[in-house]
Amino acid sequence: AFLDLSTVHQVTGTWMASTTLPCTYVPTEDFTQQTLSWSVDQGSGTSTIFHRDSTGDHILLSKFRGRVSVPKHNPGDASLLIQNLEMPDSGHYTCQIVWRSRDNNLITKEVTTIVKVVKVAATKPIIRAAEPGLTLPAGASTSLSCEAGGSPPISYRWFRRGPAGTAELLRSGAELAWRGLRPSDSGTYFCEAHNR
């Protein structure tokens, strides 16, 4: 219980998105954190990604530079944030902390989290309207926005249903906006979400 590191057994991260690997403990006055390191084993041995000591933070694997960070001013929180997840980031990640006790003993603890990076298909999008109920006076301005989940990047296209059930492509992008509505803008609109 004392100075135990908490984590989760496995994290499933979405390709191209961000994920946090938890590594936390309850700080105590009797022990001072000396070093903190994160390493990864992807099947060909273990490599250190991140190392924090009295000289600062060091990112030792170039493929993680600019993509990983650990909270600085949050005692007891050594969680690793990985941004822009890539498929090869899957592996076993180990958080190791060394503390120095008041009587100068060193205590080391470590925990390991499995990371699986997955590609997630775009979900069925939802449309959010600027106004509730879209009965609007002519000349008003309004907008619709389209939102879907899944692995980024997600692209959106807006369509308007035509008279014979045909679909007319209006524009690409998550938002469809009107500055001054005309009666002819009345109709049924739908959006489509697409990712790789």
Protein described:
The chain has strands at about 10-15, 20, 30-40, 45-55, 55-60, 70, 80, 90-100, 105-120, 125-130, 140-145, 155-160, 165-170, 175-180, 190-195. With about 200 residues, it is an all-beta fold. The chain folds into 2 domains: about 5-120, Immunoglobulins (Immunoglobulin-like, Sandwich); about 125-195, Immunoglobulins (Immunoglobulin-like, Sandwich). The chain starts with 9 loop residues before the first strand and ends with a strand. The model has no long low-confidence stretch (mean pLDDT about 90).
Feature tags:
single chain; three-stranded antiparallel sheet; Immunoglobulin-like; Ig-like_dom_sf; mainly beta; 0% helix; six-stranded mixed sheet; 196 residues
Q: Which structural class do you get from the secondary structure elements? A: mainly beta
CATH topology-level name of the largest domain = Immunoglobulin-like
Shape descriptor:
elongated
Count the domains. Answer: 2
Q: What is the number of E strands? A: 15
Order of helices and strands: EEEEEEEEEEEEEEE
Overall CATH class of the largest domain: Mainly Beta
Q: Could you tell me how far the N terminus lies from the C terminus, measured between alpha carbons in angstroms?
A: 45 Å
CATH architecture call of the largest domain: Sandwich
CATH superfamily of the largest domain: Immunoglobulins
Query: Which runs of at least 5 residues are low in confidence (pLDDT < 50)?
Result: none
Rg on CA atoms, Å: 25 Å
